[in-house]
């Protein structure tokens, strides 16, 4: 299932990010802020359980999150979305998955993975700003499932229809969230209009 989170603040901040004249500091800050705004919608249906507490005035039955949350950035651009989400879910743990494209097989090849202990029971939020062909997102979901994850959400900033279709076909059980669905991929696999190379813009590389 696809949800495009349409909100004036997100549209405003994403336009700043898309602008080629926006520098690394403002790009990162707006990505952080959009991550926080998106997580409000992404976590809307997280399960809660009752908890008995005392207010200064009276006993009270409140609510707490019933499951741990694990944020799983796909290295390296996914790292740019972690802190904005952590601001809203400070108890979240972070799993990491690193992959690069094998130039012979053209398939994503995993070079690093690290998971917290309770990963299989957690709500897993995989993050990667750009959903282009969907290859790395599908591979990350494959890895998360292979490590026992039962409930997975995929959060990207900008998606191309090609990537959305590929993820929905490979993993129909995963809820996909975008801040914007763009027009298409170009012949080099970049999203049009997109925002360029997210990793380079986050980390100031070329
Ligand atoms: N990765 C990026 O960083 N940008 C794109 O447009 C596509 C993939």
Mind explaining what this structure looks like?
- The protein is an alpha/beta fold and 206 residues long.
- It has a single domain, classed as Rossmann fold.
- Helices cover 32% and strands 31% of the residues.
- It contains 6 helices and 15 strands.
- The radius of gyration is 18 Å and the shape is globular.
- The model has no long low-confidence stretch (mean pLDDT 96).
- Bound molecules: uracil.
SSE inventory with pairings:
Blueprint: E1 2-4, H1 8-18, H2 24-42, E2 48-54, E3 59-65, E4 69-75, H3 82-88, E5 93-94, E6 96-101, E7 108-114, E8 123-127, E9 130-131, H4 135-146, E10 151-155, E11 158-159, H5 161-170, E12 175-178, E13 180-181, E14 184-185, E15 191-192, H6 198-203
Parallel strand pairs: 1-12, 4-5, 4-6, 4-8, 8-10, 9-11, 10-12, 11-13
Antiparallel strand pairs: 2-3, 6-7, 14-15
Helix pairs in contact: 1-2, 2-3
The structure holds uracil.
A few lines on this structure:
This protein has six helices and 15 strands.
Task: Supply database-style keywords.
206 residues; alpha/beta; Rossmann fold; 8-stranded mixed beta sheet; 3-stranded parallel beta sheet; 6 helices; 32% helix; globular; binds uracil; magnesium; Upp_B
Q: CATH class, anyone?
A: Alpha Beta
Largest sheet: 8 strands, mixed
Under CATH, the topology is which?
A: Rossmann fold
Class inferred from helices and paired strands: alpha/beta
Terminus-to-terminus distance: 34 Å
SS element count, helices: 6
Oligomer: single chain
Mean pLDDT, rounded to whole units? Answer: 96
Instruction: Indicate the low-confidence ranges by residue numbers.
Output: none
Order of helices and strands: EHHEEEHEEEEEHEEHEEEEH
Number of domains: 1
Secondary structure: number of strands: 15
By CATH, the architecture is named 3-Layer(aba) Sandwich
The coarse silhouette is globular
Strand portion: 25-35%
Secondary structure: helix percent: 25-40%
Bound ligands, each once:
uracil
- Kindly provide the radius of gyration, computed on alpha-carbon positions and rounded to a whole number of angstroms: 18 Å
């Amino acid at each position: 299932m696809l949800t495009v989170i349409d909100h004036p603040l997100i549209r405003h901040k994403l336009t700043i990010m898309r602008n080629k004249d926006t520098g690394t500091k403002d790009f990162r800050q707006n990505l952080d802020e959009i991550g926080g705004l998106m997580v409000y919608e992404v976590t809307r249906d997280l399960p809660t359980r009752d908890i008995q507490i005392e207010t200064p005035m009276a006993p009270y039955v409140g609510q707490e999150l019933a499951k741990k949350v694990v944020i799983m950035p796909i290295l390296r651009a996914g790292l740019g979305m972690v802190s904005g989400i952590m601001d809203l879910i400070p108890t979240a743990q972070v799993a990491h998955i690193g992959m690069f494209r094998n130039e012979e097989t053209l398939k994503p090849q995993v070079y690093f993975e690290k998971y917290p202990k309770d990963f299989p029971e957690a709500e897993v939020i995989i993050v990667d700003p750009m959903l282009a062909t969907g290859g790395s997102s599908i591979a990350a979901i494959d890895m998360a499932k292979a490590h026992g994850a039962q409930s997975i959400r995929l959060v990207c900033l900008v998606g191309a229809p090609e990537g959305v279709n590929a993820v929905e076909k490979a993993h129909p059980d995963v809820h996909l969230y975008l801040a914007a669905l763009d027009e298409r991929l170009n012949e080099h696999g970049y999203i049009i209009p997109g925002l360029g190379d997210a990793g380079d813009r986050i980390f100031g590389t070329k």
